[in-house]
Structure formats: structure tokens, C-alpha cells
Write a structure and sequence with these properties.
6 strands
């Protein structure tokens, strides 16, 4: 269980935590720019960083993300065509962000929820 719900890693410094927060804000903004707001999507950080257990490693005295970022994407129940379009956009966003940041930024397939 995560002791401090405001942290992404139990090993990272406050500088690392601030950079992670900024990084997640950038990803959320890019997600919002690419994915139509009408889709009423919810994006949730999962995995180690979502639990506050994310890894950190040093490169030239700078703390870096150790592994990937895992996001769960929740949406209303979509028809097959809209779901396919959304999955394609998420795959493209995965490739763009992974290349930009130098580690995998993964998005789940859309998980339907009832409104």
C-alpha cells in the first residue's frame, strides 16, 4: 500500500517527483489534444508509478524514469468503429510519446464503463 499518495516513487527525490508531475501533465495535455473530448475518456496512471513504487535510476547525476508508464483508458461503451479509431489514436500516441521521452508510454485498450 502506498504510504504517501502524492509520490510516484519511494526512491525519487523531490526534484524527481516534480519532474514526474510535469511529465504527467504534458502527457495528459497531449492526450487531450489527440483524443476528442466528446469521447468522455478517463486516463489513470497505473503500474508502479501509479502505486508510488516506480523505479528511479541515475544518468549523469540526473534521476530518470526506470521503466515504462502504464495508463488505463476508460471510455463509454463504444461501437466497434469508434473503438477501433480510438485504439489507433492511442497506438500513435504511444509511439510519439515513447520516442520523445525515451521510454515506453503505454495505454490500455479502451475499457468500457457504464455512465
Amino acid at each position: 500500500m502506498r504510504a504517501d499518495m502524492s509520490r510516484f516513487s519511494s526512491f525519487g527525490s523531490d526534484v524527481f517527483e516534480d519532474r514526474m508531475q510535469h511529465l504527467l501533465e504534458e502527457i495528459a495535455e497531449e492526450f487531450s489534444d489527440i483524443i476528442p473530448a466528446a469521447a468522455s475518456l478517463t486516463l489513470i496512471l497505473g503500474g508502479g508509478y501509479g502505486r508510488g513504487e516506480g523505479g528511479v535510476f541515475l544518468v549523469n547525476d540526473t534521476e530518470r524514469v526506470y521503466n515504462d508508464l502504464d495508463f488505463f483508458v476508460f471510455s463509454p461503451d463504444l461501437n466497434p468503429f469508434k473503438k477501433s479509431v480510438l485504439k489507433s489514436k492511442l497506438q500513435n500516441l504511444h509511439h510519439t510519446l515513447s520516442e520523445r521521452y525515451g521510454f515506453d508510454v503505454d495505454f490500455s485498450a479502451p475499457i468500457p464503463y457504464s455512465s
